[in-house]
Amino acid sequence: MESGFGTRRRTRLFDDLLALFLAEGFSQFTLDDIAAALHCSKSTLYTLAASKDDLVRRVTVHFFKRATAAVETTLSRNDDPRERVAAYLTAVGAELAVASEVFMADLNAFPPAREVYEANTAAAATRVRQLIEEGVDAGAFRAVNASFAGDLIATMMVRIQQRDVGKATGLSDAEAYTELATLLTNGLRT
After folding, report:
1. 40 — alpha (psi -120 to 50), left (phi > 0) or beta?
2. Residue 129 is part of a domain; what is its CATH number?
3. What is the DSSP string of 59-98?
4. Residue 42 domain flag
5. For 122-143, how does the pLDDT look when each residue is reduced to its tens digit (9 = 90+)?
6. DSSP codes of every residue in 49-60
């Protein structure tokens, strides 16, 4: 069992790795480069993951766990069912806004990291469907088929994640989520 210090140190290393990757991407780095940037040894990195590929996947998981917690915290501050869908999608966009274009391109180009993003996109789409159902049940939204709305949102979220929206519109992922929130919320209102 790890000590509190060991757990804190691992978390700090993952936070430092995440900051590095968010700013500069990860594809161009070797483990030696990463160790130098973090002022640690490669053996320290090997305590986090067995390879660079595994390290990138684990850092990506760390990113999305942190982002999910932050989004849910933001959502918990809003009890108005009319505003919760927009608050959720806007918070998702805000969490993605910290990622550089190079990080997002690397994320999309590296299958293990892309799979983590895809899984989180699917979970977020499910969460939005739940929020729509809550809004419909509360009378805040017109009676819509929440499954259809959820599927529509999931499709757009996947297009955002796959960089298709950015290519078609020039919007960043964060900007696309903000636009989706505005469009969706105004379309659902009674």
Report:
1. beta
2. 1.10.357.10
3. HHHHHHHHHHHHHHHHHHT---HHHHHHHHHHHHHHHHHT
4. no
5. 898 889 889 988 988 898 888 8
6. -SSHHHHHHHHH
